[in-house]
Amino acid sequence: MKNKITYHQEGDFLIPDLIIEEQSSRDIGKYGRLKLKYIKENKKGLYTELMINGTLNEYLFNTNNDAINRLNLIINQLAKEEKVDENLKQNDQLEWVKQMDNIKNRAEEIVLNEIIFN
To answer: What's the pTM value of the predicted model, to 2 decimals?
Structure first.
């Protein structure tokens, strides 16, 4: 979709009529902030496009939600595969915490590589 840019004249110059639209004030979260830092430093074209279109916050909010959903899915799958369940939690809480932390760390690394740094 192409937007038509209008101008007004001031003296000998044509000045574009620019309107700053309010961006959504939704919290972009941890993964949204990580994605913002990444695209600012490595994908300047995408960052500029999102800023110009006024869709940066929506993009970051959606990225955060996608990352959280993917993280939860991976954690549940790994915990099921490795039999880190309520039974282990009742019998050996320390081992359960250790294994869950390991699973969470691995899942987060997958999410960072798949969603954030891509």
So the answer is: 0.75
* Residue 107 to residue 7: CA distance in whole angstroms: 51
* Percent of the chain surpassing pLDDT 70: 92
Separation of alpha carbons 83 and 95, rounded Å: 12
pLDDT digits (tens, 9 = 90+) for 3-24: 678 889 999 999 988 776 555 5
Q: Where are the domains of the chain?
A: 27-116
Residues 6+ apart with CB under 8 A from 115: 31, 35, 63, 66, 67, 70
Burial class from Cβ neighbours inside 10 Å (0-12, 13-18, 19+) for residue 113 reads exposed
Residue 56 confidence (pLDDT) above 90: yes
Report yes or no: 82 and 103 within 8 Å, Cβ to Cβ. Answer: yes
Burial 62-78 (b: 16+ CB within 10 A, else e): ebbebbbebbeebbeeb
Exposure of 39 by Cβ count < 10 A (0-12 exposed, 13-18 middle, 19+ buried)?
Answer: buried
